[in-house]
Amino acid sequence: MTHERVYAGIRQGATILVTLFGLLVLTFCIGRLMPVDPVRAIIGEEADAATYRMVAERLGMDRPVYEQFLRYLGDILTGNFGVSIRTGQSVINDIAHVMPATIELATFAIICGAGLGIPLGILAAVRRNRLTDHVIRVVTLLGHSMPIFWIGMIGLIVFYATLGLVGGGGRMSDYNIGLAPETTGFLLIDAALAGDWEVFHDAVNHLVLPASILGYSSMAYITRMTRSFMLDQLNQEYVVTARVKGLSNSRTIWYHAFANIRVQLVTIVALAYGSLLEGAVLIETVFSWPGFGQYMTNNMLVGDMNAVMTCVLIVGIIFICLNLLSDVLYKVFDPRTR
User: Fold this and answer.
1) Domain 99-337 is in which class?
2) Most buried in the list 32, 37, 233, 255, measured by CB within 10 Å?
3) Where are the transmembrane segments (predicted)?
């Protein structure tokens, strides 16, 4: 058993290394295939040929492709992700500055999405083809069908401009910027640590609408998947047997059927969370949220390849880490996988 665990660990480690290497190759290829000249992005369109050659040599762009890749690989392994053309700062420092805003937004969104989506999916499956099921399916269909940026603009018009129930764009009001010392980068945590509850409530007021809209989008996906998983379990023979033995309906649903879909739901929620971390760019744009998605888009528009390639690499690493977390949770929820 010990040897099997060691071999399993070696296989998993080798898989991770191969995946990371493939991700590096893919990221490098994206940087070379995009219709953007990184040299021109640095020196501008009016620079002469001599300046172009000098900068190309400094960047190693005049070398063969395999040498460029080896140089890129060496820089990544030594933690050198380059300097952003747009900000003039280290790319990794820029990302470390904007990532907490996106994590904060995505975390509250997935709490809303999973917290509502899983119970609604179970309820829809239990009441299949009844009014409750039809209503839930319509709500989730709207969540899938309506463009998220459109929902965001309507939400701002209704809840901010008309009713005044929530804050507007950004992470907080202008008059509160800089009042709470930036300790962790997570505004709610920093405000709580500083004991500045006015800034904390202002940050919550600005967070609730974009997080709810993102949560609604992920809720629609999680609800539909939960309903599908539960319907499959409720049609199994063991459920019929449990009911014949006299078990209550709630115990049959939650203790037996739901227990068998927990592992599947872990994957669904993890993938939904990863998608929120890298795909919240539309909401971040609508709400002027200074997060990772907006940073990546702004740099892509100006051809800042150092920033774009690093962002793509980080997105891949996020999904790898979420898959590893899913594997760990599998063993917690299902002892048979240990």
Assistant:
1) mainly alpha
2) 233
3) 12-34, 105-126, 138-163, 203-222, 265-287, 307-330
